[in-house]
Design a protein that fits this description.
Strand order of the largest sheet: 6-8-9-11-10
Radius of gyration: 56 Å
Shape: flat
Order of helices and strands: HHHEEEEHHHHHEHHEEHEEHHEEH
Structural class: alpha+beta
Number of strands: 11
Largest sheet: 5 strands, mixed
Helix content: 55-70%
Number of helices: 14
């Protein structure tokens, strides 16, 4: 389909829709106005005639009523006038008798009229008592003729306008098509590489502007072609030596890559050794407290074992006396029984029986305590740098706190607020090292006995571990250097300055971060933020 035909059809379609809407709106408006005028006149006429007929109906003056009806029936658009009693008896009528029907149906709009007559009625009443009713029929033929004539005239005007618009669209489409044909032929020549073509600009409208722009484009393409030819010649020359240059460059890059790979491996090995050394150094600093923590339960386990050994000997001796009683003669039983009672009294056998249960319970608790400390040390010191698995931050924190009991209890009161949190993907040993470093630093920052709050929460799909102390705080100028390697505020010999740097690197490797908030003289809060394990988030969402 050509542009000319598209233009004609498109404009004609738009014009047809707009004219149809206009004709429909005008006809609807005229219909409503004529209907409103008819209803108003019919109701007014019926009401006035009911008022006029009131006295003749009340006086039963049928002659006057006939006279009034005939006078009203002389109006050209009134078909009939009737007056009836409330029972339907006809009192007077005028106009078309064929319209006289006992089945009177009142009309309320033009659309409800089916016989060409608009029927309206009005009651003849006094003080709410109806004495009769007037019925009047109005001929709506003139209204329908006006509407039909208006509809025909509007349709004729619309058709004439559509024809004129179609002719204009055809002329415009023909003009545009002719100009586009010229542009198409010129574009074909340009596509074949002929950039010397120049279009004639003979109009100042948009078509002329397009022709001017086409000429400018052809000129730019011509310059670009010349530039491209020059670059192609240069490229041919460069290609002659490019292959050798690429080979030499590739060999150099490969050598640099191998050197960089070896350096990276050396750095990774050094970092792993440094991480393990810092971890073992932390354990070394805490070894005295850990030894004390292990020695206490071992001591009372050892003491309980001695007591249990003594109690076992008492029970063995008492068991021998009971066996003697079973083997003795009846006349010997009283003496043996007296010996047994004396032995039980002397050894306080009731206390021994009760104390055995206590000793066994305490011994088991002590062994479990030693087992937990050893397990915590094993988890903390174990080197598994490349292994990550689902970890519970709360369990890691509780395990580390068990190791640090002796270190912290002399410096502060430890308070925990652990909210159940989803798992995170991490290396348990490395997370334990970060937690230990933060807890030890918090404890050492409190020069006087203070309080250490350790808590866990979930914020925006992230697990947050907070360590808050009531220590001396960190100076504002040092906050930006806390995670720099070898930076420390401790005296010489008391810190390496690598703890926080290594901790920051570990958490960054776990796709997390460490935040610091401190106020000198009031304390510091470190927050470790780690992403929640995706499977745990999906399970929680479900």
């Amino acid at each position: 389909m050509s542009i000319r035909l598209k233009t004609v059809l498109g404009v004609a379609l738009i014009e047809a829709v707009l004219l149809a809407l206009l004709v429909y709106t005008a006809m609807k408006y005229m219909h409503e106005n004529l209907e409103e005028a008819l209803i108003k006149r019919a109701n007014t006429t019926a009401s006035l005639f009911a008022t006029t007929a009131k006295d003749p109906v009340l006086a039963y003056d049928l002659a006057s009523l006939d006279s009034f009806s005939a006078e009203l029936g002389e109006n050209a658009d009134i078909v009939y006038v009737r007056t009836r009693t409330p029972e339907g008896i006809l009192l007077a009528s005028a106009g078309d008798d064929a319209a006289d029907s006992p089945d009177f149906v009142e009309d309320f709009s033009l659309d409800s009229v089916v016989d060409g007559i608009y029927d309206v009625s009005a009651p003849i009443s006094v003080s709410g008592v109806e004495y009769g009713r007037v019925e009047i029929g109005f001929d709506i033929g003139s209204i329908e003729e006006n509407l039909a004539e208006t509809r025909q005239l509007s349709t004729l005007i619309a058709i004439i306008e559509m024809v004129l618009v179609a002719i204009f669209s055809l002329l415009l489409g023909t003009y545009l098509t002719r100009q586009l044909m010229v542009l198409r032929l010129a574009a074909k020549q340009v596509s074949k590489g002929d950039y010397s073509l120049t279009l004639k600009v003979d109009s100042g409208d948009e078509v002329g502007e397009v022709a001017l722009a086409f000429n400018q484009m052809a000129s730019v393409l011509k310059e670009s072609q010349q530039t491209r030819d020059r670059y192609e010649n240069e490229l041919v020359e460069l290609n002659q030596t490019l292959e050798q240059r690429v080979i030499r460059r590739t060999e150099k890059i490969n050598a640099q890559y191998e050197e960089l790979k070896n350096t990276h491996q050396q750095l990774a090995d050094a970092q792993a050794k440094l991480l393990q050394a810092e971890k073992l150094a932390s354990i070394g600093q805490l070894s005295a407290g850990i030894a004390h923590e292990i020695n206490n339960p071992i001591s009372f386990v050892h003491s309980n074992a001695h007591s249990l050994s003594k109690y076992i000997k008492i029970y063995q001796q008492l068991l021998g006396m009971y066996r003697s009683a079973f083997e003795a003669q009846s006349e010997q039983l009283p003496a043996i029984k007296a010996d047994i009672e004396a032995f039980e009294s002397a050894e306080d056998i009731d206390f021994v029986t009760e104390d055995i249960d206590t000793l066994i319970t305490d011994t088991i608790d002590g062994a479990v305590r030693v087992q937990e400390i050893v397990k915590g040390l094993r988890d903390f010191s174990h080197s598994n740098h490349d292994t990550k698995m689902p970890c519970d931050v709360v369990e890691c924190t509780e395990s580390t706190l068990r190791i640090l009991t002796a270190e912290l209890k002399s410096r502060c009161q430890v308070r925990t607020e652990f909210e159940p949190v989803p798992s995170v993907m991490g290396n348990r040993g490395e997370l334990n090292q970060v937690i230990m470093n933060l807890l030890v630093n918090a404890g050492q920052s409190m020069e006087e006995f203070g309080e250490l709050l350790v808590s866990t929460t979930v914020e925006d799909s992230q697990v947050v571990l907070s360590v808050t102390d009531t220590g001396k705080g960190i100076a504002p100028e040092n906050l930006g250097k806390l995670f720099d390697p070898f930076f420390t505020t401790k005296p010489v010999g008391e810190g390496t300055g690598l703890g926080l740097s290594i901790s920051y690197g570990i958490i960054k490797d776990h796709d997390g971060t460490i935040l610091v908030d401190s106020e000198p003289g009031k304390g510091t809060t470190f927050k470790v933020v780690l992403p929640v394990l995706e499977s745990d988030m999906n399970l929680k969402a479900a």
